[in-house]
Specification:
Protein name: PHP domain-containing protein
InterPro entries: PHP_dom, PHP_domain, Pol/His_phosphatase_N, Pol/histidinol_Pase-like
Shape: globular
GO molecular function, one term: 5'-3' RNA exonuclease activity
CATH superfamily of the largest domain: Metal-dependent hydrolases
Mean pLDDT: 94
CATH topology of the largest domain: TIM Barrel
Number of helices: 10
Distance between the termini: 19 Å
Organism: Megasphaera stantonii
Structural class: alpha/beta
Low-confidence stretches: none
């Protein structure tokens, strides 16, 4: 069985539309996938023609933080019609749009020229613009060789073009996911540093053991899941961005037997 429970589309900061991504998933032989866009469920609620050839678990990746570190919470089996969830997504989109324009202004103050009309057009159509989108625009303009270089130079947290934004607390994210009937899973714990011990004290339902940034630490995070009685999750965090692993759907693999309890959650 091939599974990928962490994937992004153009509804947040991915390269492919929901339709394109599900088609690629079928072509790659995925059996189960989760489109888990950042702070939006648009892939499930805006009439996208999702390929029925792959089992799709409704999901979202919520943004939080602790002591200066980004903390992301994956919600699985979400009721996409839940009013509180929809309100959260709507408000977050508004804040993200205002933040995007502030980032553009900071880039321009640093001497980087961006196509404001292009950005405003995306926003006017209800689209999302975040740091990855702006980074790709800077690469296209020839200012940087790739997206990684943009983040390293100006868009890293605290960088000269970075604009912070207010996020819900970890517990608020977990509570909202539970209100929407879902499971709350800590995303890519390998990206956390000093904050990790504190973050692990929160009442998650699971932990994303298998992730490209967790490689070499699978056993460590499996032990956390066993100790706490948490579900084991896994996914590639696929965005489709050139230079960011994985660049193709289906090439990140892991032991899907470990995630079987999560896959069976709604079938009990």
């Amino acid at each position: 069985m091939k599974v990928d429970l962490h994937m992004h589309t153009t509804c947040s900061d991915g390269v492919y539309t929901p339709e394109e991504l599900t088609n690629l998933a079928v072509q790659a032989g995925l059996d189960v996938m989760a489109i888990s866009d950042h702070d939006t469920i648009d892939a499930y609620t805006t009439g996208c023609r999702l390929n029925p050839g792959v089992r799709l678990i409704p999901a979202m990746e919520m943004s939080s933080d602790y002591d200066g570190e980004d903390v992301h919470v994956l919600g699985y089996y979400l009721d996409t019609e839940n009013a509180a969830l929809q309100e959260y997504c709507a408000q977050f989109k508004l804040r993200r749009q205002m933040r995007a324009m502030e980032i553009v202004e900071r880039c321009e103050s640093l001497g980087y020229v961006l196509d404001r009309e292009q950005i405003e057009g995306v926003l006017a159509r209800g689209g999302t613009i975040g740091r990855p989108h702006i980074a790709r625009m800077l690469v296209a303009k020839g200012y940087f060789p790739d997206v990684t270089a943009v983040f390293a130079a100006i868009l890293y947290r605290g960088g000269p073009a970075y604009v912070p934004y207010r996020r819900k607390s970890i517990d608020e994210c977990i509570e909202l996911i539970h209100q929407a009937g879902g499971l709350a899973v800590l995303a890519h714990p390998g990206l956390l540093h000093a904050a990790l011990p504190h973050v692990l004290t929160h009442s998650f339902d699971g932990i994303e053991v298998y992730h490209p940034k967790n490689r070499g630490r699978y056993e460590e995070f499996l032990a956390v899941a066993e100790e706490k009685g948490w579900y084991v999750g896994g996914g590639s965090d696929f965005h489709g961005t050139t230079g960011r692993y994985p660049e193709q759907v289906g090439i990140f693999s892991f032991d899907t037997e470990r995630v079987e309890p999560l896959l069976q959650y709604k079938k009990k």
